């Protein structure tokens, strides 16, 4: 794999992990678990 392709893949992976964490955190806030 090229360095540029690897960098793009890494960027998407980081983005999806961050998006998933934000979604879970928002769900916890709505459920009142996290203040």
Report on this model:
With 35 residues, the chain is an all-alpha fold. It is built from one helix and no strands. The radius of gyration is 15 Å and the shape is rod-shaped. The N and C termini lie far apart (44 Å).
In short:
The protein is mostly helical and 35 residues long. The chain contains 1 helix and no strands.
Write the layout of secondary structure elements.
Blueprint: H1 3-31
Average pLDDT, all residues: 89
Number of helices: 1
Shape: rod-shaped
The biggest beta sheet reads: none
The H-and-E topology, N to C, reads as: H
Q: Which regions have little confidence, pLDDT < 50, spanning 5+ residues?
A: none
Counting DSSP E segments of at least 2 residues, the number of strands comes to 0
Overall helicity:
over 70%
Strand content: under 5%
Structural category: mainly alpha
N- and C-termini, Cα separation: 44 Å
Task: Provide the gyration radius in Å.
Answer: 15 Å
